[in-house]
Amino acid sequence: MPPLTWYLYVSAALFCLGLFGMMTRRNAIALLMSIELMLNAANINLVAFSAYLATPRLVGQVFALFVIAVAAAEAAVGLAIVINVYRTVRHINADEINMMKW
Amino acid sequence: MTGYQFAFIAVSAVTIVCGALVVTLPNILRSALFLAFTFLGVAGLYVLANAEFLAAMQVLIYVGAITVLIMFAIVLTQQLMGAKIRHSSRMWWIGGPVAALAFAFLVKSFVRPFQAAGDLVASEPAAAGPGTLQEIARLLLQPYVLPFELASLILLAALVGAIVIAKEDKD
């Protein structure tokens, strides 16, 4: 069986990919996809720790379920905002949406 | 190397390669497609950690719902057939080193200590017995029943909020 650290390496790599996407993308939907990558990395950690404790407990999986529920709510509201912004300014480039900047 | 370790390396390679494609591909629709494969890879990692219920939820919610939602939003907001749209900014030369530094920091301060923590950490994941799902249900409905109900409230609020925000103003 793979040791716990392998999961942690994969999770760290996925989190940093999401971080890279957050810093380099300018499309608002691509930013949301990067956020989903980082949330998934956190979930991998929760599930791995839950399974590899010396006395295993399933609380980590329950917490990951809550994270999934909140991520679904975040995706729905975020994409609704993106669609509304597109209707107003006809693009969704996050670095050009500066109407509220004085 | 056992079969489990080989399967882990294969699944995690698929996950990370597809994740890298998600954040680098210039075509946003292809990014969303590879996002679905990344989610499937994460579900495979859950299965390897004996979390089958969570893997099923991952496939249902992320692959089935969130990816489709993202694709709908892309189709509604991009002129896909129009002129070439610049999706990435020119910040990759600073984003790449910062992400690499963050990875090095995570490995040094977060992953390495768990290699030394031998007595806290089991060498194998806990076997998924027949009572795993019952235990998750017990945790959700006895000690964590308040967050469980709050989660449904959050989902309802997000549902109503998303409809109100995305609705077109008639006036």
Q: If you had to describe this structure to a student in words, what would you say it looks like?
A:
- The complex is a heterodimer of chains A (102) and B (171).
- Chain A has 102 residues and is an all-alpha fold.
- Chain A has one domain: Helix Hairpins (Orthogonal Bundle), CATH 1.10.287.
- Chain A is built from 3 helices and no strands.
- In chain A, helix 1 (4-24) runs antiparallel to helix 2 (28-52) and helix 2 runs antiparallel to helix 3 (59-89).
- Chain A is elongated.
- The relative contact order of chain A is 0.14.
- The mean pLDDT of chain A is 89.
- The model of chain B has no long low-confidence stretch (mean pLDDT 86).
- Chain B has 2 domains: 1-78, Four Helix Bundle (Hemerythrin (Met), subunit A), CATH 1.20.120; 130-171.
- The radius of gyration of chain B is 21 Å and the shape is globular.
- Chain B is mainly alpha-helical and 171 residues long.
- Chain B has 6 helices and no strands.
- Helices cover 74% and strands 0% of the residues of chain B.
- Chain B has helices at residues 3-24, 28-48, 52-77, 92-116, 132-141, 145-166.
- At the A-B interface, helix 1, helix 2 and helix 3 of A face helix 1, helix 2, helix 3, helix 4 and helix 5 of B.
Gross morphology of chain A: elongated
Please summarize the sheet with the most strands of chain A. Answer: none
Question: Which percent band covers the strand fraction of chain B?
Answer: under 5%
Straight-line N-to-C gap of chain A: 57 Å
Radius of gyration of chain A: 17 Å
- CATH domain fold name of chain A: Helix Hairpins
What's the main sheet of chain B like? none
Helix content class of chain A = over 70%
Order of helices and strands of chain A: HHH
DSSP helical segment count of chain A? 3
Ends apart, CA distance between termini of chain B: 66 Å
